[in-house]
Amino acid sequence: xxxxxxxxxxxxxxxxxxxxxxxxxxxxxxxxxxxxxxxxxxxxxxxxxxxxxxxxxxxxxxxxxxxxxxxxxxxxxxxxxxxxxxxxxxxxxxxxxxxxxxxxxxxxxxxxxxxxxxxxxxxxxxxxxxxxxxxxxxxxxxxxxxxxxxxxxxxxxxxxxxxxxxxxxxxxxxxxxxxxxxxxxxxxxxxxxxxxxxxxxxxxxxxxxxxxxxxxxxxxxxxxxxxxxxxxxxxxxxxxxxxxxxxxxxxxxxxxxxxxxxxxxxxxxxxxxxxxxxxxxxxxxxxxxxxxxxxxxxxxxxxxxxxxxxxxxxxxxxxxxxxxxxxxxxxxxxxxxxxxxxxxxxxxxxxxxx
Length: 354
What we know:
Strand order of the largest sheet: 7-6-5-8-9-10
CATH topology of the largest domain: Rossmann fold
Structural class: alpha/beta
Number of domains: 2
């Protein structure tokens, strides 16, 4: 299958999109800029050879209307691969607006309208689809499961580059979103502080950083090394050098629908993982076989999980091997490519039979 990108940058300039980003005047400026981008996208698309499928990907919600017009005009089928719901992210999870408020109702109505445009919507889990069905009224016949993978050019099994020093290294990295529950990780670190051979590395910044930093100072932690950020290309080195990688532990409404990128990246690098249980992950992974689950929002459970993994090298090896195996079977680029190729062929057959 030949793939051609038709893209104009809009969202990339702002890494952290807080509440002000979704304010009225900010959205007005974004809207005006987007109108100019639409004209550029239309011109680019017209110069392409005829296509059978248009795929709109992550952060592409507002591109759907233009994509639908183009698909109708040029006889293409339309696939939407959103990864997240705007309403879920802004209203349910981050709670920028209260459910039932007029901005929340407007966002919900807008996204419900957008959901009627694609021929197929790709979502990563049944748990995720349940949200789209309940809130966004996505019909079952338009849903297709498609797991998200990782960049396997960057994330693959690598030997540790650190010397064997007897230190058990625990790694977390992320954008400090509420669903990641970083506050519970540092409280777990306090519970393990009496063992100087257990050391934590916490990488990132984000919305909960101020609370986490204040709590860390209050606890007087001496076993946590905070790093503001690392180059994405350097991240695999930190993962390879970790004895255990941490997933997410938050207690937000969105939490249970998540299969975190950091979990998939650690699986792809054959590292043992401790993470809070989510129904979405449980669809594909088994605790004690592929990774280790613990209750979310519970520092003691996190500490106990770390101790379990530290005291059982054979369990770490078992999780690493089986975790990598399940990644290859379900989350690898090869498997994902086969799935999306099958969906594209299905849509082309339907188009030919019209």
